[in-house]
Amino acid sequence: MTRSPIYVAIDTPDIARAREIAARVRNHVGGIKLGLEFFSAHGQAGVREMAALDLPVFLDLKLHDIPNTVAKAVQALASLKPAILTVHAAGGLAMMEDAKAAAPVGTKVVAVTVLTSLDGNDLDSIGVAPDTHAQVERLTLLARQAGLDGVVCSGNEVKAARKLWPQGFFVVPGIRPADGNGHADQKRVMTPRQALDQGASILVIGRPITQADDPDQAARAIEATL
Ligand SMILES: O=C(O)c1cc(=O)[nH]c(=O)n1[C@@H]1O[C@H](COP(=O)(O)O)[C@@H](O)[C@H]1O
Fold first, then answer.
1. Where in this chain does the record put each Orotidine 5'-phosphate decarboxylase domain (predicted)?
2. Which of 6, 55, 105, 224 lies 20 to 30 A from 29 at CA?
């Protein structure tokens, strides 16, 4: 049986709730994603507890600092052996190279390009040319040059990015089912089916599953569209 491409983003500081969601959706997802909210509340002990549920763990800490600091942080996380670990591509080439060198064998290190919560106006406001496509493409090439495994981008850019890096691993968040209500803080969104068709390797889906009355049913319904 091939694994589902869905990683469910378990964004909660409540570990009992995190365990409950993971247990309920486990047959309809390929893994769980633990990010800043969960890690800030529970740290490595919490990640180990969730890893005991025996689903691949995507540790999304979006590391972004000078190369030495990021490399040492990756070393400090290495014993967790996450399936996937994130850094920010905007940290630059040397930071990404050093992050990859410090990561355990078997951990995919992927770089966040342009957050899915940003649009062209947001890029302009931080002094970056207001073209999300061009910026994603540029950072994808940089991540490739650094020897990373892939990048994180929205479904809108994944086709163009994959063209630049056919063997890359493409993580796509900002996923909203067609019948869902509201994008919340996400600006560049796409349906699960479209994102896969455009070249996503995996889909990161949080609130459409975790905030549903029945997370298992929500995951199942999304899986049925794939
Ligand atoms: O790296 C990520 O996973 C990520 C990158 C990005 O550009 N946008 C983005 O939303 N994410 C993460 O994907 C998840 C999206 O959650 P929902 O909007 O609830 O589906 C969150 O855990 C975010 O931290």
1. 5-222
2. 105
